[in-house]
Design a protein that fits this description.
- The chain is α+β, with helices and mostly antiparallel strands.
- The chain contains seven helices and eleven strands.
- A five-stranded mixed sheet has the order 3-8-7-10-5. A four-stranded antiparallel sheet has the order 4-11-6-9.
- It is elongated, with a radius of gyration of 19 Å.
- It starts with a strand and ends with a helix.
- 26% of the residues are buried.
Length: 212
């Protein structure tokens, strides 16, 4: 991966060693944001602007193309963030765990949902009303700092994952997915694994066979 550091009168170019390029965590989490949401939920008096919602496995928290009416912060469970293409194929961008926020980009940009968020386990999430979210943006410095760090982390993650997929084999990414399943005690379908790795089912089956 290539990083550019701007310094007075010149630009220093730093090449990171190949061994340092990795896709980052397979499951994104944000304990700082989770702690903030838990405190906010506990302190509100009438429980009107932030509610705790539950989603069964397979339920959609966000639906691509639809208008977003809430911003949600995951309390428990694991979700997948994915794009649906016109040909019916899906591409999984990332797996999101506790403390991750969803719907904030759409609200900030005033657009429909860019992607879908689906529960792959039972999920609980704090749902923030839009007036509350906007109020936090305007008045709460701590929230702004946490949100900026979250967005920056996702940019870094996306860049490192793109580099990883170019430099490493499907088998390498598959091994990490299998390790994620074992650690989190979940089972991903072959369709989901292929969608995350950016390969077709035939290539996935070949990789699984070679790993055996």
């Amino acid at each position: 991966m290539l990083f550019l550091y701007c310094i007075p009168a010149k630009v220093r170019i730093v090449f990171l060693p190949k061994k340092d390029i990795c896709p980052g965590p397979m499951l994104l989490t944000n304990l700082s944001l989770l702690s903030f949401a838990e405190k906010l939920y506990a302190e509100q008096e009438r429980k009107e602007h932030i509610v705790l919602k539950s989603f069964d496995k397979g339920s959609l928290l966000l639906h691509q193309g639809q208008q977003q009416t809430k911003v949600m912060i995951l309390k428990e469970g694991i979700t997948k963030c994915f794009f649906s293409e016109a040909n019916g194929k899906e591409y999984i961008v990332e797996f999101l765990g506790v403390g991750e926020i969803v719907g904030e980009i759409e609200v900030l940009r005033k657009i429909d949902c860019l992607c879908s968020i689906e529960a792959i386990t039972i999920v609980q999430a704090y749902a923030l009303s839009l007036p509350l979210f906007h109020s936090l943006l305007e008045q709460d410095l701590a929230f702004n700092r946490i949100l900026l760090e979250e967005l920056a982390e996702r940019v870094v993650y996306t860049s490192s994952r793109a580099s990883f997929q170019q430099l490493y084999t499907t088998e390498h990414g598959l091994a990490k997915l299998l390790a994620l399943q074992e650690k989190q005690q979940i089972r991903l379908s072959k369709d989901d694994m292929a969608a995350y790795l950016g390969v077709n089912i035939r290539s996935l089956n070949r990789a699984l066979k070679e790993m055996k």
